[in-house]
Design brief:
The chain is an alpha/beta fold. The protein has one domain: Nucleotidyltransferase, domain 5, CATH 3.30.420. About 35% of the residues lie in helices and about 15% in strands. It starts with a strand and ends with a strand.
Length: about 190
């Protein structure tokens, strides 16, 4: 099975990380934000074309893929936002719109919204400030390598590369039937043991 995790940048000029896992090979490949930027430029069309080239069975995107129910009393938050105490997609307008556009233009039928911090919380890793803390990113990396029986790539450690790998590992939990679904549309995937 081919799994693709995307840490989507908020703008086409933003930083996007992408990781790929072939479960037959047990090998993760990472395409750094620099590679994505060089390959796809500022074009979502090129990013979509690049993602399509993997013929993914399942894609996980770290960006909002749904909006709240505007008829409900708590119309700013989705079920997953409430459960995870996350920001509302209404405050993340540009990345939300970009994620919707990309999702709608991918041919893969199984596309989930993922939130990398859910994997860190599952492993009881103190992740506060990890996006800006190189040392903490390296510690997280070592924990992941030790836990998962997969071939990990040598990568330049940064938040985008790490988050795309966390996204693909959440899909690996899905592949191994160790997950919970929050029923937003499309579904939000949370890893479990």
């Amino acid at each position: 099975m081919i799994l693709v995790g995307i840490d989507l940048g908020g703008r086409t000029t933003g930083k996007t990380g992408l990781s790929f896992l072939d479960t037959d090979l047990n090998e993760i490949k990472n395409y750094s934000r620099e590679y994505i930027s060089e390959r796809c430029g500022k074009s979502d069309k090129e990013l979509i074309r690049f993602v399509e080239s993997f013929n993914a069975d399942v894609i996980g995107i770290d960006a909002p893929l749904s909006l709240p129910d505007f008829k409900s009393e708590n119309y700013l938050y989705r079920n997953c936002d409430k459960k995870l105490k996350a920001l509302s997609p209404m405050t993340l307008g540009e990345i939300t719109a970009r994620a919707f556009h990309i999702k709608e233009n991918l041919s893969c039928k199984d596309i989930f919204e993922v939130y990398p911090k859910t994997l860190l919380e599952l492993h009881k890793i103190n992740h506060k400030g990890y996006k800006r803390d190189q040392n903490l990113q390296n510690i997280i990396w070592e924990i992941l390598i030790e836990y998962y029986d997969l071939d990990f790539p040598d990568i330049e450690m940064n938040e985008d590369n790490l988050d795309s790998i966390l996204a693909v590992l959440i899909l690996y939990h899905f592949y191994n039937k160790k997950y919970e679904i929050v029923n937003d549309a499309p579904p939000f995937l949370i890893p479990t043991f």
